[in-house]
Known about the structure:
By secondary structure, this protein is of the alpha/beta class. Helix content is about 40%, strand content about 15%. It has 14 helices and nine strands. Strands 1-2-3-4-5-6-8-9 form an eight-stranded parallel β-barrel, surrounded by five helices. The protein binds (3S,4R)-3-hydroxy-2-oxopiperidin-4-yl beta-D-xylopyranoside. (3S,4R)-3-hydroxy-2-oxopiperidin-4-yl beta-D-xylopyranoside binds near residues 289 and 355.
Amino acid sequence: MFTARDRLKLLLGGAAFSVSACGGGSSSPVRPTPPPVVVTPPTPAPVIFVPTEGQLRDKFVNQFQVGGAIQVGQLTAPEGTLLGAQFNSITAEFEMKPDIMGPSEGVYNWVEADALLAFAEDNGLQLRGHALLWHRSTPDWMLTGTPAQVKVKLQTYITEVVTRYRGKIYAWDVVNEVITDDGSLGDAYRRSNWWTASGGNADYIDWAFEAARAADPDCKLYINDYGTEFSGKLGRLLDVVRDLQARDIPLDGIGHQMHINVGTSAQQVFDAVDAVDTEFMGLEQHITELDISVYSDPASCFSDQTGCQSDYGTTIPDTVFTNQAQLYRAIFDGLATRSSVNSVTLWGISDAATWLNEYPVSRTNAPLLWDRDRNAKSALQAILDSSFTP
Ligand code: XIL
């Protein structure tokens, strides 16, 4: 340890040397005065927040289940460990969609779904089913034939799947993304392969819900969609819900995907939930696919990949993470006060494994609660610790 006394000695020593050099004759070399010694304290290592086991799920145990989406291949990776340690609900990122579970007519693939269910049961997680019908993952065989034939194929598929997992899945997204983004159509329905196969109408939505209810009377049946943080899309979704209810189509809840970004306000999320509460008392609500992109992209980035914010690479600004943490905290706090919301699922666990690294364009994104090294982010700390300032 270099003390003040040592420093004084050094300085005096230098002075004494100069004096003796003067008195000792002109031939002695003049030695330079040593520079003052500056002692720099070591930079402390950043303190990494480590949540205690179960801290995330426990915090909201009286409000909602906390879910994570995962791929089967990640169950044995760090993501699987974090999921088991901190969550109480699990969603298959893609393995329970029709193109995986129904590869051809009358042929079912249960391998991945069963693996997810086994993981859920081993780790005390509830399984959320996603999704029985989605225009982007429908195998071709299901869509061919007359509307009557398509109805039989869809209902047979749904009956098989829901029956197999009856009592094991607490909620199914029965139809996913059936609402149009086009506000000028005059109705709310997406013009998809399903719309066409139904005969140019939305009858397939009824077929799907009726088959699901018949196969499992206790499972909660959901209509799930993105963009409900925007009033236009939300309004169209509510139009469809109103119509389903008026015709007694079995529907238990509304799923808000909430693929949002750091430019979204928490109030947009609450407005969506509150609008449902105001009009549809008794319907449950889930946040089904929450992630907060670090990019605030225009709509064109999603429709034709133009105008996307450029890649931050490895240098995402700190201010972005601060905003993200504040937004995560505000959303979790606000949802906890809304009793119709009984499940909140994050669409992934760590930034190392998020679909947003590839979608809508390939880019380094960081939308989740653990970073690429699987360290807890300030967003997680902000959710868990109200005294923490992100
Ligand atoms: C995405 C998955 O994250 C990807 O791995 C997959 O390739 C495509 O689907 N809305 C949904 C989810 O309902 O099913 C989507 O998941 C993301 C958008």
